[in-house]
Amino acid sequence: MTKYVVKRVLLAVVTLFLICLITFFAMNAIPGGPFNGEKAKSAAVMKVLNERYNLDKPVIVQFGYYMKNLLHGDFGVSLKTGRDIRQTINESFAISARIGAMAMVIAIIVGIVLGSIAALMRNKWPDRVIVFFATLATAMPSFVLASLLLLLFCIKLKWIPVWSSTSHNYILPVLSLSLYPMAYITRLTKTSMLDVLGQDYIRTARAKGVAGWKVIFKHALRNALIPVITYVGPMTASILTGSLVIEKIFTIGGLGSKFVDCITNRDYTMIMGTTIFLATLMVIMNLLSDLVYKLVDPRIKLE
Amino acid sequence: MATENNVNDLPLPKKNPLSLQIDLSKFEKATDEEKKQQDVMSESTTFFKDGMRKLMKNPLAVGSIIVLILIILMMIVTPHVVPYTYSQIITVDGKRDTGAKNLKPFQYSKMEQAYIAKGGKVFPHVMGTDELSRDYFVRVVYGTRVSFMVGVFASLIVGIIGVLYGSISGYSGGKTDMIMMRIVDIIYSLPDLLVIILLSVVFKETLDFSKVPILQKLGANMVSMFLVFGLLYWVGMARLVRGQILTIKENEYVLAARAIGARPNRIIWHHILPNCISVIIISIALEIPSAIFTESYLSFIGLGVALPMPSLGALASDARSGMQSYPLKLVFPALMIVLIVLAFNLLGDGLRDAFDPKLRK
Lengths: 303, 361
Fold this sequence. Notes:
- The structure holds 2 protein chains of 2 kinds.
- By secondary structure, chain A is mainly α.
- Chain A has a domain at 99-267: MetI-like fold (Orthogonal Bundle).
- Chain A has 12 helices and no strands.
- Chain A has helices at residues 2-29, 43-52, 59-71, 85-120, 125-138, 142-156, 171-197, 200-207, 212-224, 226-249, 255-265, 268-296.
- By secondary structure, chain B is mainly alpha-helical.
- Chain B is built from 14 helices and 2 strands.
């Protein structure tokens, strides 16, 4: 187990380093420096500025400085607003995290319940209805879904006010973020539940007279949920990238909409900082879900 | 013995009561009808034929095939039938009709109505027009075409690179395999969408496409998307192919081929790949919807195909601004995306059920 943990952690570190490398060199490849603004500056001023921010050094040395700052938690300042990037991330991520966490919890709970129902009532009408909607939900990009929800509930039915970012109305954003993972978890739970229900130990439990609900909750569901753990990592990625568009549609000032703004504004340092931050989050979640998965299921062979 | 009496009645000479000689009187000749039952009823079948038969029995898969054929037909036929183009303002009688903004489906503008009253013929705007007086149906069809093409080509790129890499890695084994798979592991854990966004931003600024007309038409964003698909998305396919090859290369016929001196190249192409081609094709088919998803996502955050070329994602994204007054403009492209993705997903599932050797009984 230790060997496996070490291996996975090493892989995560390499991945993170690679992300920083790609981000840094990608942004460096764009012509023009941070001081090539509207106003032309004299050569002397430019020289001083370049020296001050180490821009006269070779790129690889600059990368070294950037990494050093990153490890100290310093993402630099935004090119457009001049604000500290870390502060911006701190502020805006709180909003995104709240919506994301809500979406995750809802996706997991509802997904597991629906998946179990579908598995237990296999080939009956609840199963068919659930599978139909799960298939439909995985065929719809989140922004299309979000726009359609907005259209339906805010404009046609007028149940929810259109611009409600101030009143903390998170229903639609959370719903549109959680629907895809929810559908995925439903399908995942259904398959693994069916698999588990066919196992010998379930028959044994039934044979020795354990109550039906107890078999499901105590024997079947526990093992059926293991594959869901592996999906937590990818789900984080899908919710984080999904939040870019969802926050834009519902005008929520979270990290997602900030990221889209800095792409359209070409705020390169901000793009770098946000990319690295989001990527780190995804890599860590992936690592955690992998490790927990191995911890929970002893049948999985450790390399 | 009970049978003693019967035996005595026989016309045949009886040698020994315990003889196993067949007692013919107990049998009767088979009628022609009964003979027919012994004939082999089903014709001999190939892997492909059998799979197709199974596929055709799956109503969802057949439905998706029909939907896809209809969509492809629509993409081919529409430009020849509808007299509008995706980037031009509608012209009536040779004059630009700027009054034809945001028409409802099958509605005509004032200029068109006047022209019709004069006896002219105007092709109906099946899905209305957009805010720049362009026929929306044509734009949706072209958008479908772009999204479709992006999906197909991206998954072909993924397929080719994945198969090459995976088969080399799986066949060589040993240290080569280990190093190649570690690279795959690292790439696999990169957050792909973030990297696509990053590279799209960079390529938009750095690459000069003005000399290559096709690339110019697609735009930097699409090229970078293809590039990223080529750089990142193939790893899933590579893993799949490697796994397949690892099991197949243990077969005796591979050993036999190696024994008569076939080169690895030939063994992979002629002996191993044909045996896992079904799995590869299925996962390429399932890759198409994910590429269409990615494209529409990028279009939404402004990193999609170059203007004025429409894609379904770009159309849906544009439609949001006027959603309150013209909701149908969102519904049409959204419906197309859902139809295409759903059809490919269901077809992929159907293909897997029909062709995947692991699932075959």
